[in-house]
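Appendix B.2, paired examples.
Example (i):
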Amino acid sequence: MQRTGISSASSARLSFTGLLELLKPITWFPPMWAFLCGAISAGTGITDHLWLLLAGIVLTGPLVCGASQIINDWCDRDVDALNEPHRPIPSGRVPAMTALVFAWLWSTLAMTWGAALGTTVAVATGAALILAWAYSAPPLRLKRNGWWGNSAVAISYEGLAWVTGAALFLDGQLPGAAILILAALYSVGAHGIMTLNDFKSIQGDRVMGLRSLPAMLGALPAAKLACAVMLIPQLVVIALLYHWQAPWFAAAIVALVIAQCLAMMRLLQDPERFAPWYNGTGVTAYVAGMMIAASALASIAGTTP
C-alpha cells in the first residue's frame, strides 16, 4: 500500500510538471517585455498602478503566450512523437485529450482575463488568441510558411502586446498614432527575429517539408533578409524620434543599431552557426531599443515612467 501511494503521488507530480512544461515559461519574456514597453509609452506613469502592471504581465505572458504554447504542442504532437518523444504529450505525461482541453480552458481564461481589463485589451487579446490557433492548428497552420507564421508570431508577441500595455494605462482607450506606429514597426522587425529562430531547425524543416524562410531561401539569403527586416524599422524609428524632438533617445538607438550591424557582420559569415549567438547579442540590443523608444514617447508626453 505504501508503494502504491508513492507511485500515485509521483504520477500526480509528473502530470502537473507536464502541464507546466506545456506552458513553456521561457517563452513568456518577449510579450511581457513588449507589454511593459507599451505601458511606459502611454506616458501616464506605471508606479501608481502596479496592480494593472501585474495584471497585464500575467495576461501577455502566462495566459496568452502560455495558451499559444499549449496549442502548438497539441497540434505538433505527432511530429514531436518522432523528433522530441520526451515532450509532455508524446511521452504520455499529458494525454492528448487532456492537452486539448487544457488549451481551450487556458484560452478561455486568457480571453476572460483580457475582457475584464477593458474593450481595447479584450480585442487585442482575442486577436492574439486567434493568431495563436491559426499559427498551429489546421486548416490554416500558418507555421508551415515562414512568411505567414513569422508574421503571426511577431504581431502577437510585439505589436498586440505593446498595444495592450498602452491601452491598459490609457484607461482602456485606443492608443494614439505614435504608439501604434512604433508597435507596428517593432512588429515588422520581430519578423526578422523569428526568421533567425528558425535556423535552429533548418535541417529538420527541410526533411519535414516545412517552408521556413531558411529552408526555402537558403541560410545566407534568409539571414540577409532577417537583418534587413530588423534594421529598416529601427531606422524609421530613429527618424521619427528626431522628428518628434527626442534626439537623445534617437541617438541611443543609433548606438544600438551600430552594435547590431557589427554583430550582423559576424552572423553573415556563417548564419547557421552564429544565429544562436546573434539571438543573445543583436536581439538584446534590438529589445533594448524598444524600451528606449517607449521611454521617448513617455518623455514627449511629459511624464517620467
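Example (ii):
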Amino acid sequence: MPSLDTHCHLDDPRFVPDLGAVLERAAIAGVKDIVAPASEERRWPALYALAGRGGWPRVHPAFGVHPWFLREDDNPHSLTERLSCVLDAAGHRAVAVGEVGLDFWPGMPEHGVQERLLRAQLELAQARDLPVILHARRSEDRLAKCLRDYPGLRGVVHGFTGSEQQAERFVGLGLLLGVGGVVTRQSADRLRRVFAAVPVDRVLIESDAPDQAPSAHAGQRNEPAFMGETLAVLAKDRAMDALALAALLDDNARRLFRIDGGAP
C-alpha cells in the first residue's frame, strides 16, 4: 500500500459526517500522508484548519482555484493576490499550488478566461518554487502548450486519462502523471497501456477521493484506504512486486512535494 495519497479532497462536504473515521481507516491501511488540494476559495480556511490538526495521516494542503469554480467576471489578478495571501499564511505547510488547470468540457467557463487564471497561478507557483497540481479535461494539448512558457516548473497532471502521445509530451516537459481508481475499471485497457509505458519515476498514485473509486468500490464514496486496488493493477501491468512499486511511487511523490517520510 502506498504511504502517500497524492490527491484527496478531504475538504469535500461528503467527508464531513465521518472524516475522523476516514482518516483512521487510511492510517490502518498504511497511509501516512495525504496531499489535499483545495479547488475553490471558500474551502481554503477549512483546509488550512485541517492541515493543522496533527496526528496521522498528516494532511498537506495545496491551495488553488479550479476552473470549475471560475466565474466569467472573476479577476485573475485579484484571485491570485488572495491565493498568495493564503500561501503566506500556510507557510511551509502548503506543498503545492492546486488544483488548477483547464477544462474544456461543454458548459465550462470560456477558454481564454480559464487560461488567464491558470497562467497567473503558474506564475505564482514558479515564483514560490512550488509544484502545481493540474487538472485537464479535453484540454491536454492546450495545457501542454501553455506549460512550455514556464520552464522548470514542477508538477503533476492529476487523474491523467489522455493518450500515450500526450503522456509523452507532459513527461517531456518534466511533469509527472497521476493515476487513480479509474485505471481499475474493465473499460480502462487503453489507459492501463498508457501507464504501463510511462517511466515509473514519472508516475504518482492518488485516490482523488471522494470521487473515482476503484472498481471493487464502484458506486461508493472513495477513500484513501482504497488505493491498494489501484496499486495492484499498476503492479500487474508492469510485472512488478506491489510493495516495490509502492516504494518507488512514494519516493516520486515525496520528491515532488518535498514531504519527508516521518514516523511512526
